[in-house]
Amino acid sequence: MDLLKNLTVLSLEQATVLPYLTYRLAHDGVQVIRLEHPVYGDPNRHIGENVLNEDQMNSYFLCINAGKKALTLNLAEPEGQKIFHRLIGELKIDVFTTNQLPKNYKKLGIDYETLKALKPNIIWLGVTGFGPDSNEGAYDPILQARSGLMEMTGETRGAPQVLGIPLPDMGTSEHAYGQLMKALYRREATGKGACINLSMFESSLSWLTVPITFTASFNKKSTRRGNTHEFFCPVSVYKTRDGFVYLAVGNDRQWQSLVAQDIFKSLNTPAYEKNAGRIADVQRLNQLIEEITINHTAGDLIRLFKSITLPASKINTLAEVLTDPLVARRLLFSKDERTGAKITLAPPPYITPWLEHSKQNLSFPPRFGEHNREIYGERLGYTEDALTRMQERKII
Length: 396
Hints:
Helices cover 39% and strands 15% of the residues. It is of the alpha/beta class.
């Protein structure tokens, strides 16, 4: 079915950046075990609405934690570290990931050298805000602000805006996924593990390809431009009779196809024949286009644009996105065997063999410490009395 289904990942994770990474790994059939503090847990368990009417299973947590198992463990206690080290060896952990601050690595017994001594070929991944030498806390919007992503987002004369999705979080997750795949390939070829340190700040910067080169090399200021494009025109949002459409004209040939249509013939002037002329008059041209589109429905315009192979789309609400046939066939699902509750999950980047085999269903997001008895009791051999004592002492 998939080679990755035999891998086990132990993740000391919270918030978004690591949970999204391990969620992606769960799509591959990887056995993912998330670790949480037995008192505080993952703060995201408390975010959103209490849709299941139970503690620590709020809606925000449900979005990216399906397909995993959950343990609680207090790594600040020597007994907790002893149990953790047993997990590494006896569960044959292939990958350990953490988004703890670097200053806590050795204190908690989770640093690479310690785990390498327990399992020489382990792949260790630490995700930090600003690198392994920094203990500065980092939330996604702070990274957006510092990296320049916010400077590039918003209306031309408006205030900087955060992105609609947490790109520093989820982008770092994707970069981490790639690094793990390379490390797994290297281990398969050489038998050696790896220590990977990934900075969310550096990940965020890597998306600013054009702005950084233009600023550093050509002294050209890059900043937010609203819905338009810096180099191509017309590329923007236009009002219609019943909503908005986004039209992207990428070359002069496409422009000629557009102005050859009856409703746009008034724009067929020599001044706009070349992209440079259109860019030079971008604000006025966009106004002229919108004076035309406002008299037509989004559906009629999209049919016209598609007939001449112009890239365009109605600006869909999320409810409308879910009805798109290309989306509907890629959605993931999860059902709670305890309550019968069902949730719909966002499509993955691609349908993996594991997802295909499972008919795009994942196990329900795990409850707080849900698998303590299964893993500590059945797999590590702790008795029920021992588990109860550890729970009372808040070791688990």
